[in-house]
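Researcher: Please predict.
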Amino acid sequence: QVQLAESGGGSVQAGGSLRLSCAASAGTSEIGTMAWFRQAPGKEREFVGAFRYNGGRTYYADSVKGRFSIARSRANTAIDLQMNSLKPDDTATYYCAAGRPILSAIATASIYRYWGQGIQVTVSS
């Protein structure tokens, strides 16, 4: 069983920055992709971005392109989500996920097998 540990988050004013981190208990051979999703109250869980270890590429939702970036952490099987120019609409619980989705399904939450407990990000106007 793979466990995901999230850290970071918190509260910030609009225009500010935050960084989230996620570390997995398994190696990269067991995890093809690590991703971030978010869920605001009353809304469905939505894709934020992902990092595929095979090829080292990142993928982002249109809503965060140019503001958020995912980087592979120095630690084994860990990624950081740097969030800049935050907006009140970014307020949500952010979840780290890991799995082996095919590229066409990288934004599909149900494909991911492992999930973190979630971490709150609040952006005030």
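Model: The chain has a mean pLDDT of 94.
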